[in-house]
Amino acid sequence: MATGTEPTSTTGASGVHGPTRAAIPARHLRTERWWLYPASTAAGLLAFVVYSTWRAFANADYYHAPYVSPFYSPCLAENCETMRAGPNWELFGGWWGLSPALLILIFPLGFRLTCYYYRKAYYRGFWASPPACAVAEPHKSYSGETRFPLILQNIHRYFFYAALLVAGVLTYDTVLAFRDESYAWGHMGLGSLIFLVNIALIWAYTLSCHSCRHIVGGRLKHFSKHPVRYRMWGWVSRLNARHAVLAWASLISVAAADFYVYLLSVGAFDDPRFF
Amino acid sequence: MSSYDAHFRVWRGDATGGGLGDFTVEVNEGEVVLDIIHRLQATQAPDLAVRWNCKAGKCGSCSAEINGRPRLMCMTRMSVFDRAETVTVTPMRAFPVVRDLVTDVSFNYAKAREVPAFIPPADLKPGEYRMQQEDVGRAQEFRKCIECFLCQDTCHVVRDHEENKEAFAGPRFLMRVAELDMHPLDAAADEGLDRKRAAQEEHGLGYCNITKCCTEVCPEHIRITDNALIPLKERAVDRKYDPLVWLGKTIRRRRSG
Amino acid sequence: MTQVERQAWDVVVVGAGGAGLRAAIEAREQGMRTAVICKSLFGKAHTVMAEGGIAASMGNVNEGDNWKVHFRDTMRGGKFLNHWRMAELHAREAPDRVWELETWGALFDRTPDGRISQRNFGGHEYPRLAHVGDRTGLELIRTLQQKIVSLQQEDEREHGAYDARLKVFQECTVTRILKEDSLKEGGRVAGTFCYERESGRFFVLEAPAVVLATGGIGKSFKVTSNSWEYTGDGHALALLAGAPLVNMEFVQFHPTGMVWPPSVKGILVTESVRGDGGVLRNSEGKRFMFDYVPDVFKEKYAQSEDEGDRWYEDPDSNRRPPELLPRDEVARAINAEVKAGRGSPHGGVFLDVSTRMPAEVIRRRLPSMHHQFKELADVDITAEAMEVGPTCHYVMGGVDVDPDTAAATGVPGLFAAGEVAGGMHGSNRLGGNSLSDLLVFGRRAGMYAAEYAAALAAGERPVVDPRETGAAEAEALRPFSAEDSGLPHTGRPAENPYTLHQELQQAMNDLVGIIRRQPEMEQALEKLADLRVRARRAGVEGHRQYNPGWHLSLDLRNMLLVSECVARAALERKESRGGHTRDDHPEMDRRWRRVNLLCRLATTDGRPELPEDPALAHIRLERREMPAIRDDLLELFERDELAKYLTDEELSS
């Protein structure tokens, strides 16, 4: 058959059960537990959404000197708890009556929501588009990211810039975590360690971002003319290969850091101090 | 060395219909699924249609779906299956079936023609090309592609939505656009061709929702999504959705103009 | 017969590998409407299997290289049986053909100064092979394929149709070259008879010029690196059209094919493994190749392991290790080691890179070998040695052609290029010379085919003899009526084509394989006669739509013809040279260098047609004297060296 043959167009056909395809009634013939991945992804993401919604709206128990929950940092409204030398910047003044977390969480949330990894995760896990490879999806039509609202995914890099700022603030918070309850420097507790791990993962996740990889060097046509950016691109690429793992690890660590502050704050136990 | 009898279900039929046929067939140590299909041909079903060529994972002809997963039959060893397991082999389900395991893959050849070819730089004669290894490395990864079309087969954009075939080039040919855009000497820009914009506007890059099935099935382990499709999306953003880039360019143009 | 569809083209190219595509590009660029017809999908040709590289003396890595050195290496590799003019053209034009690929988008590996990197290979004095990792053939085929697409895009812009001037008929098979008068000897080519594999539909492409670029014959052997397409179609088509084949006794056994597991036995392990530092060891751990350096190469190769190892770093003051001897020498050595009981557990020898290079370097330089062994044999070549043994790889013999124009002898309008053409490589091909051969002679065949077609005015074009079309159709349909051939009717076809094929492969492998003996070859000829008789009864079930049993039945005719050529020529040549090793005549004989053996169809009444009785010999041999090598080319060699190859008589003149 010549290469000139145009693909047959069969409008109204339904994917693998279309009239030209091999007649196989099953939606898929996969024999392994393919649903495990989308199901666990959905469960994991859902758990985080529930937890973070509760914590974000709680507007309480987010500061226990010297630790501030990453959900509430930086704190941009007047109704924030006072954190000595902490990330209190009252940009929004006194009219903001809701939880101050909502002001800042938009950015990391947007960063993760438009992240190339999370997109895969929720398109598969929540939207079943597709549920797994070679498993027919349940939707009648599909336009991907060509139209509103999903075309907005293209603004990922702006959330990346914002995420850099947020990561900067969380780094500052981590430095502040090397104080004790009375703000004396040079101390470390379990919380400091948790914050340290969290900020390392946050940075690794942020810098492993595909947009970051593009901005740092991926957009170049000639690496050889930009040796420094080429080397940086190499580093980011190596991190980028683990973007999915870092996405989960940092998601868990940020929740863990917040939960730790919550536990201290409600007095569940005292922060074990190392020195 | 030990042989055993395996249970196979192989789809037989053509465009008018068909179904899975049951076979019991001998398997020897070290064999791959294609060996078993050949044994069926030689002993039980001489007219069983199957496309194959090199039998070494280099030509990308023997694409099919084995236990529902798009794979090369020559690179699927029988040892990955349990001996008691029934192995199901069907043709690729995203393309029109011709007969048995053979599908009409002309969609891919039509798409290949829609991607404008490499444009050589006007000022360089043959033999004068100079390129650094680090500059060709990215495109070389994509040129490992053996055109087995498993990525095209598994991509839900066309697999599950026949109507998208017109607008969407598929992972293989979006990767081809990326390859050319990353080619250090491609002179498309000099000819007024913007491959980044074309990826979005002509080849349907926006349909891709980066769910990575193309990468999962690639027998050459090309990181199609991370290294070709996402960078291409980012390049399209540079052109179409990034006011900073736009601003920078306008300023530069002012200065030089 | 009227229902057979006909299409008129200027040039038809049979085969879409490197040579075919290069020929088609050239013919189309010369302004001819060109059709390419291939058995597989477009872009799947056997060329993708080539791993090492394209030999071209660009001198990018070692400036000492030039076409003369390349010519010299090629002649030595072929033991001076090469057609000198082809070897000269090949060496002169190869660099241009490689550079041209870059302008079509090819991306070769680079040197530090940005030029095309070149690697060492067996038989080449300098690093000479342009490469892309170990998938150079894929790069070549993809580049040519994409060039074709770009020409089609041009045509679409100008003529509104992609196929207007260059069309690929994929998954179609040519069963006959059609001529203007089936009774006339030396009649002109008028077209090809083809069928579509997908539907079984017959069609005729009418064209005054046909380029054969169908590759080799490896599928006639059991252990082979070749794909299913390599059934010697072009060789057989040329024979049936009345053209002779030359050098058919020379079949290259690549020294390193996989030997285990059985299902992948024969799959190639690229020579670059050795070029990059891999060594061959026997079961005693000894690097045995040092014991197998023949006299003609004694001065050129290292005598000790130390010297050989130093060569990789400092090739100017050391000699190369004997692992890099031409392929025929290495294949024979491995064969001898295994026979002497020093083989590996699965009947090969060990090829080791794991102790020679860091794992990281192996993965980078030999990615597809690493992948191939991991996936197919579950062997990690960075940690353990590979087991390898000889595998049928390439046929040096082929259609006898004019060196400059690639025109087949005696059949106006028929051209041949690539593996299907003979002469270029003499008795043994050097690694890397195949891809360059495809490009150099593919282009020439396309160019001269176009020139030939263009020279014919509209009214002068040969017209297909309708008798030829009718005969071709009847021949192609015969497998479906085989069960009615008067044999005990069982409801099943009389002979299973798959069984016949397996028996043929076994016979060729065992009886006309890497080491040959007179009684075995005689036995092979008897077996071939028996198979020919049975092949007439080969039949198939089902219908014509994508029926592999039917396809194989048709290909059997071709395999039987070329196998007979190999066996007859091998029986006739009473010496050992290159890809032809006789146990009973182990020495190279200078008098035999002057002789070319031509195979022709044994015809009963002068016209090129298969004999009625399948038991009769189908092939007759003819001896022809080799043309004298031009003086300035002879001067490239030391007289002492020439004395090993040329007779005293030739030397004195």
From TrEMBL, chain B:
Listed cofactors: [4Fe-4S] cluster; [2Fe-2S] cluster; [3Fe-4S] cluster
Keyword Magnesium: no
Listed InterPro entries: 2Fe-2S_ferredoxin-like_sf, 2Fe-2S_ferredoxin-type, 2Fe2S_fd_BS, 4Fe4S_Fe-S-bd, Beta-grasp_dom_sf, Helical_ferredxn, SDH/FRD_Iron-Sulfur, Succ_DH/fum_Rdtase_Fe-S
Alphabetic keyword roster: 2Fe-2S, 4Fe-4S, Iron, Iron-sulfur, Metal-binding, Oxidoreductase
Sequence ranges assigned to domain 2Fe-2S ferredoxin-type in this UniProt record: 6-93
Protein's pathway: Carbohydrate metabolism; tricarboxylic acid cycle
Organism superkingdom: Bacteria
The keyword Chaperone is annotated on this UniProt entry: no
PANTHER family associated with the record: SUCCINATE DEHYDROGENASE [UBIQUINONE] IRON-SULFUR SUBUNIT, MITOCHONDRIAL, SUCCINATE DEHYDROGENASE IRON-SULFUR PROTEIN
Record family assignment: Belongs to the succinate dehydrogenase/fumarate reductase iron-sulfur protein family.
Name recorded for this polypeptide: Succinate dehydrogenase/fumarate reductase iron-sulfur subunit
Source species of the chain: Streptomyces olivaceiscleroticus
